Amino acid sequence: MAQAHRPTGTGSGPRSPGTAPAAPRNWFLRLGAPPVAATALTAAVALYMSLVAFGNITDFGTNQQFVQHVLSMDTTFKDPDLMWRAVESPAVQNAAYVTVIAWETLTASVLLAATLFWIAGLRRDAYDLARAASTVGLVMMLLLFGMGFLAIGGEWFAMWQSSDWNGLDAAARNVALAVFTLLVVHLPGMRRAGAARP
Question: pTM here?
Fold first, then answer.
């Protein structure tokens, strides 16, 4: 009686125990995972905020004029009911601008740290610290552009009335970028730190 011959080909049958799955396919699937998207977006926003802060530090005068014109409200409709809000003191204007730059620098630093946490987390499937740091940095960005530029600059100092010194569109883009990244960072599918692989 002849023995049954076991096929030796690489068919689609079940793998024997201990056989590693195809590495390229697993690598590609990991590349498309939510944590990778969160890492990439956090890195992009961190780079953007770093360049914004660097530009304002090395080219101090350009946006200094922007802040001065917005706070002094000299290019608005100059409605007497609103002009009492204007800040005309150069010292206060410069202090406000330096505060903005300091906030941008701190935001960039937090997001750069968050990017490093994401990169480290990708190796261990541990994302709690990265998600928390990203959230802090992105909320700082929302406060700067949402509260600082859209609300205070746009409404309190009537920046929307100015055709020359109106930063509302840029601020809205930055708010949208921060919100989108924040949503990706909090997508389901991220393992908790306690579920990290040994």
Answer: 0.82
